[in-house]
Specification:
Strand content: under 5%
Order of helices and strands: HHHHHHH
Structural class: mainly alpha
Distance between the termini: 54 Å
Number of strands: 0
Radius of gyration: 20 Å
Number of helices: 7
Helix content: over 70%
Shape: globular
Length: 185
Amino acid sequence: MKIYVEIFTSFAKIGAFTIGGGYAMIPLIQKEVVERKGWLKDDEFIEFLAISQSAPGIMAINLSIFVGERLKGVKGSIAASLGTALPSFVMILVIAMFFQNYKDNDIVNRVFTGIRPAVVALIAVPFLTLSKSASLNRYTAIIPVLSIALIAFMGISPIWLILSSAILGLFYHFLSVKSSNNKKQ
């Protein structure tokens, strides 16, 4: 029972103190599950993150489900996903009840304007951290740059890029296996 409480509270802290949504949660989740708790290794975290982004639904919830499931199966995934979602749900509920009275307040609008750049930074940090863990080199760095360009400037859906990357990854794998088998013969 103690581990379920630990999983829940770890993800509840992340869910309660993250402004900016799922992508802003990534560095906090990584710090908690990889560095502090040691529940995952860096490469496992990157794999879970990639799957979480590819799966339908909210990325932070998906990631918490995968981590929780890895730790303690279905019950662990329930504890982790509730920990991630419940604090935000409660806060949004409270804000919604009182925000109607303050939505046109200049101070409130200025606070939200000030928060926006911090959210951008929170999203940029995991990109830099994970790019180091992903072992990018001058050849593989082309892939994320090209992906960003295709999405931002050509309007190509990320779904097509994910599918194309999966197919190219399989193709590359089979070529490298075939090449290594030929060298052994």
